[in-house]
Amino acid sequence: MQQARLGILQEMPIFGGIEEAVLNYLLSKASTIQLSRGDFFFREGDLDNSIYILQQGSVAVYRSWQGRQYKLRELAKGDCFGEMALMDCKPRSAEVIALEDCSAIQITAAQLADLYHVNPEQYTMIYMNLGREVCRRLREADTRLFISERSSSTAG
């Protein structure tokens, strides 16, 4: 089981360049969250500074606007979510619901802070990787917005 969890982390860009010993350290402190289909990992506006890495199952990410829910994306095994709140310490900007039974690794900001005291270089690398992931998602969102705006301006 631990080897499978380690393998998932090693495949993720946010843990690129992170030593196996550090990943094992994080996993030793991390929780495993089990949710049934239809349960929420968190809701928009919740205070929670954890990142979740899906070990099993799939989820959908939703955002509310004017009383309606809009699906932003679906995520599956090996994907992560929650990195924005981990980095900016603000309430959740979206909600994540299990589309099927799910298992996820939960790593909190406090657990990462513990890593800082053990290995500040690896801690810094993780946060740099998280920043890159957030930038990648922002770039993707910008592209989708651009395409949407272009489609709207040419349709009218």
Task: Give structural notes.
With about 160 residues, the protein is an alpha+beta fold. It has a single domain, classed as Jelly Rolls (Sandwich), CATH 2.60.120. Helices cover about 45% and strands about 30% of the residues. The chain is built from five helices and eight strands. Strand 4 and strand 5 form a beta hairpin. The longest helix has about 35 residues. The chain starts with a helix and ends with a helix.
Return the structural class: alpha+beta
Shape: globular
CATH architecture classification: Sandwich
Order of helices and strands: HHEEEEEEHEEHH
- Mind telling me the CATH class? Mainly Beta
Strand tally is: 8
What is the average per-residue confidence, as pLDDT, rounded to a whole number? Answer: 92
What count of helical segments does DSSP give?
A: 5
Share of residues in helices: 40-55%
Q: Give the uncertain stretches in residue-range form.
A: none
CATH superfamily: Jelly Rolls
Which fold does the CATH topology refer to?
A: Jelly Rolls
How much strand content do the residues show?
25-35%
Largest sheet entry: 4 strands, antiparallel
Tag the structure with descriptive keywords.
156 residues, alpha+beta, Jelly Rolls, four-stranded antiparallel beta sheet, 29% strand, globular
